[in-house]
Each structure stands twice: as structure tokens, then as C-alpha cells.
Amino acid sequence: MTTIDLTTDSFNSAVEDNDILFVDFWAAWCGPCRAFAPTFQSASEKHPDITFGKVDTEAEQQLSAAAGITSIPTLMVFRDQILVFSQPGALNPPQLDQVITAVKGLDMDAVRKTLAEAEQAQ
């Protein structure tokens, strides 16, 4: 599967409509972003069961600000509409594969339980 371009208009529906969504926040002028792009694209082709999206932080400044992006590239991962991973910095292929494996292996019932307990504790 190829990556999809995400915008302010399409971001929420992408999170809601996909079981697993990897999002790369990037900019054309960013060297590490350009270096990470082939790794991200390759992973999207190897994992057709995952949706991979890209947000151009220059074109989508409002979305980037709402997502709290302060450094690029930043990778965010949503599973079952829950943000389960967010980290700035370019990953190499083995690191990205490790994140993919970890996200696929998450016990989402346990994640939801932990989130609910954290909310109650506040």
C-alpha cells in the first residue's frame, strides 16, 4: 500500500477509519525527513494491513500545531483510535520494524484499561 497524504480535513477520519495508522509529520526542507521517507514508504509496501499517512507540516501548519509537533520528522501511531506511539526523529528500517511489531502485538484491552485507570486517578 502506498502512503496517503493527510490534511486537516482528512486526519480525524483516517484515525477513526483505520485499525492501525502510522503518521509521518515531515517537511520538504528537512534532511532527516527526506532520509526517513524511503524507510516509511518501504514499510507501507511490506505491511498492507496498516495504513501509512504523511502530513506535510508546511502545508498543514494548523494540524501540526494541534498535534503538538515541535520537531520533525515525528512519527505518531494510532491503534483503535488511541495514540500509542509518538516520537520525533528518523528511524532506521529495523527500528521502524520494531515499532510495527510492538504496535501489532499490543493488548488493546489492557491499553484501554490503563487509560481508564489513569483518567480515574486524575
UniProtKB/TrEMBL annotation:
Residues 1-105 form the Thioredoxin domain. Disulfide bonds join 30-33. The active site is at 30 (nucleophile), 33 (nucleophile). The record marks 24 as: Deprotonates C-terminal active site Cys. SUPFAM superfamilies: Thioredoxin-like. Keywords: Disulfide bond, Redox-active center. The record marks 31-32 as: Contributes to redox potential value. Pfam families: Thioredoxin (PF00085). One of its GO terms (molecular function) is protein-disulfide reductase activity. Belongs to the thioredoxin family. This is Thioredoxin. It comes from Mycetocola miduiensis. The lineage of its organism: Bacteria, Bacillati, Actinomycetota, Actinomycetes, Micrococcales.
